[in-house]
Automatic annotation (TrEMBL):
Mur ligase central domain: residues covered: 118-289
Annotated Mur ligase C-terminal domain residues: 312-444
Enzyme Commission numbers on file: 6.3.2.8
PANTHER family: UDP-N-ACETYLMURAMATE--L-ALANINE LIGASE, UDP-N-ACETYLMURAMATE--L-ALANINE LIGASE-RELATED
Top-level class of the enzyme under EC nomenclature: ligase
Protein name: UDP-N-acetylmuramate--L-alanine ligase
Superkingdom field: Bacteria
Cell cycle recorded as keyword: yes
UniProt keywords, alphabetically: ATP-binding, Cell cycle, Cell division, Cell shape, Cell wall biogenesis/degradation, Ligase, Nucleotide-binding, Peptidoglycan synthesis
Domain Mur ligase N-terminal catalytic: 13-113
GO MF annotation terms: UDP-N-acetylmuramate-L-alanine ligase activity
Native source organism of the sequence: Mycovorax composti
Length: 459
């Protein structure tokens, strides 16, 4: 399909409340397009806050009933989750309106700018936000299209996952889950890690290999063994390392106190208000990318001192009777383990709760969830799970979160199944004391943010 971005005036987004879709919708509105969209959550009376913020940006929102698509609509954008049977897809076809997938549109946008694309199975949103903050602090006025809201932008009343700057620099997340990462040809590509998530390792290696070949310059995190396999030692490859010797950008001297980390990159001290060793690696990748743009390590360090974090990534909600409550987007095995480990540095005991999403993904990753979470838990720590979040569609419900809990329990860890998450506050209260952390993890379910605040209020 040959679509010229400059000729588009009135795009319509199906599933506009989603993180990826809302970001692109806001970006296109920011460059002057007449943007509208719909979402099935609007039909159900959900995602009202997102709808309100989109409308505040001038994006007209509709129920997912076809009423928003008119003869003036010149492009329909759909995520991979939107099936051809959806009424709006059918209406677009009847009216002869071009239909494009979200990733294809993002690739068109990326091709129109000097793009830094962040790839990897974990840490993309955080690294994207760090990059944006460094470039902004350095006065380079970048744009951003992210999968999560930056706290600094959320404070301004925005969803926070998109911003249109004045320069040609654009920072984006490059998603591997649907293979769309191969469509981007960025000025700078960044590979954070490769771990099993959505796809097997070897398939991911091939996908990220194409991403590497499509990038003019490429940054590889050597600390991740699978990502290191794609370091080809070419002239335009740059390495980042955590506590390893070698060329490139080397991070060392990691220390975490509470929810703050400090470390050095090539002897330059850094301090960031965020938890976890994995975030040292994310920061090092961001610093390496901005160095290629011309930002000094000192300026990058100053910028990250002011980093405020992103929505639901180790987001500290507060302290209730001596217990810290942390909300996190962790949803694959490695991310869940990393979230637990990052909280362990701030607590003598971590009580973690996790809501898996999707029956097929949970089935695919069952062994990995059990292995990673079991290895992460200390004897005093606990893992709780509620039933798998079901977003609709055709699937086989032949697995339960209780199966994962039983597997972890068989490994000698403290593991508990709680089918109805509404019972969580009462269930964990007797098991928490001053100095503990209650970590809430999960993704895809739009009610998780309100749930985490409800838990805080009722703990």
């Amino acid at each position: 399909m040959n679509i010229n971005l400059q000729n588009i005036k009135s795009p319509f987004f199906i599933g506009v409340a989603g993180a990826g879709m809302s970001a692109i919708a806001q970006y296109l509105r920011g460059i002057g397009m007449n943007v509208s969209g719909s979402d099935r959550f609007f039909n159900e009376g959900k995602a009202a806050d997102i709808k309100e913020k989109l409308e505040a940006e001038g994006i007209q929102c509709y129920k997912q009933d076809g009423s928003g698509i008119t003869p003036t609509t010149d492009l329909v954008v759909a995520s991979t989750a939107v099936e051809d049977t959806v009424i709006e897809i059918q209406k677009a076809k009847e009216l002869g309106i071009p239909i494009i997938r979200r990733a294809e549109l993002l690739a068109l946008i990326a091709a129109s700018k000097k793009t830094i694309a962040i790839g990897g199975t974990s840490g993309k949103s955080t690294t994207t936000a760090m990059l944006f903050d460094i470039l902004t602090y350095a006065g380079l006025s970048p744009s951003i299209i992210s999968g999560a809201g930056l706290v600094s932008l959320i404070k301004k009343g925005k969803i926070g996952n998109a911003f249109v700057g004045k320069s040609e620099w654009l920072v984006i997340e490059a998603d591997e889950s649907d293979g769309s990462i191969v469509q981007y040809q960025p000025s700078i590509g960044v590979l954070l890690n490769i771990d099993k998530d959505h796809k097997e390792i070897e398939e991911l290696i091939q996908i990220f290999g194409t991403f590497r070949n499509n990038s003019q310059s490429f940054i590889v995190n050597q600390s991740n063994k699978n990502a290191a396999r794609l370091s080809t030692q070419l002239a335009n490859d740059f390495e980042v390392n955590a506590d390893n010797s070698g060329a490139g950008f080397v991070a060392s001297s990691f220390v975490q106190k509470g929810f703050k980390i400090s470390f050095k990159i090539n002897s330059q001290p850094f301090e960031i208000n965020i938890a976890g060793r994995h975030n040292m690696e994310n920061a090092t990748a961001a610093v390496a990318a901005t160095s290629l743009v011309g930002v000094s390590l000192q300026v990058a360090s100053e910028a990250l001192q002011h980093y405020e974090g992103i929505y639901r990534r180790c987001q500290v909600l507060g302290n209730k009777r001596g217990v810290w409550i942390v909300d996190d987007f962790a949803h694959n095995p490695v991310k869940c383990a990393a979230a637990i480990k990052s909280c362990q540095q701030a607590a003598n005991k971590v009580v973690a709760w996790f809501q898996p999403h999707g029956y097929a993904p949970t089935r695919f990753l069952r062994t990995d969830f059990v292995r990673e979470i079991t290895a992460a838990l200390r004897p005093q720590d606990e893992i709780w799970m509620s039933e798998i979040f079901y977003a609709g569609g055709t699937t086989t419900k032949d697995i339960s979160a209780e199966d994962l809990i039983n597997d972890i329990k068989a490994e000698g860890k403290q593991a508990f199944f709680l089918a109805d998450r509404k019972n969580l506050p009462d269930a964990v209260k007797p098991r928490l004391e001053e100095g503990n952390v209650l970590l809430l993890m999960g993704a895809r379910d739009p009610s998780l943010e309100s749930f985490s605040h409800w838990v805080f209020d009722n703990l």
